[in-house]
Amino acid sequence: VVWLVSETFNYSAIDRAKSRGKKYALEKVPKVGRKFHRIGLPP
User: What is the pLDDT along the chain (43 residues), one digit of tens a residue?
Assistant: First the structure.
């Protein structure tokens, strides 16, 4: 049996998009990106 486990497997598309958006904001606009305290997805 192979378990399908990935970091984003349990998250909805909305949560994944939010995470991507925050990372993008942090890269492109550091001032805006600093307002986000949790950049990635929670474990």
Answer: 555 555 555 667 777 777 777 777 677 766 655 665 555 555 4
Dihedral over Cα of 9, 13, 37, 25: its sign: positive
| Distance, CA of 43 to CA of 32 (rounded, Å) | 24
> 26: closest CA among 12, 13, 14, 37?
37
Q: How far apart are CA 34 and CA 43, in angstroms?
A: 21
Task: Give the torsion sign (CA, 15, 30, 32, 27).
Answer: negative
